[in-house]
Amino acid sequence: MIGTVTVVNNNLGQVIGWDLGFDFPGDTTITNSWNTSVSQSGPSINAGNASFNAAVPPGGSVQWGFKATWSRSDANPSAFWFNGASCAIG
Predict the structure, then answer these.
(1) What is the value of pTM for the model shown?
(2) Which of 58, 60, 82, 86 is most buried by its number of CB atoms within 10 A?
(3) How deeply is 2 buried, as exposed, middle or buried, from its count of CB atoms within 10 A (0-12, 13-18, 19+)?
């Protein structure tokens, strides 16, 4: 599976340094990623900015992607956390 994630800054201030967390409900394992640094512990994913995309201006966005494998379930995440705070999916 190949996935793409777009993070949009809907706040009034610039974000400098970002971290996106989520859990895969199934047994998905990320095998490769780009435009981010990813760590995984069981179902929990933590994706952080790369050196070149740490700043996200108001109304701006950053996009990153990944390749993943699964054997029993590839269910989509249902909740995300941006810099530690719950964020909207959409």
Answers:
(1) 0.86
(2) 82
(3) exposed
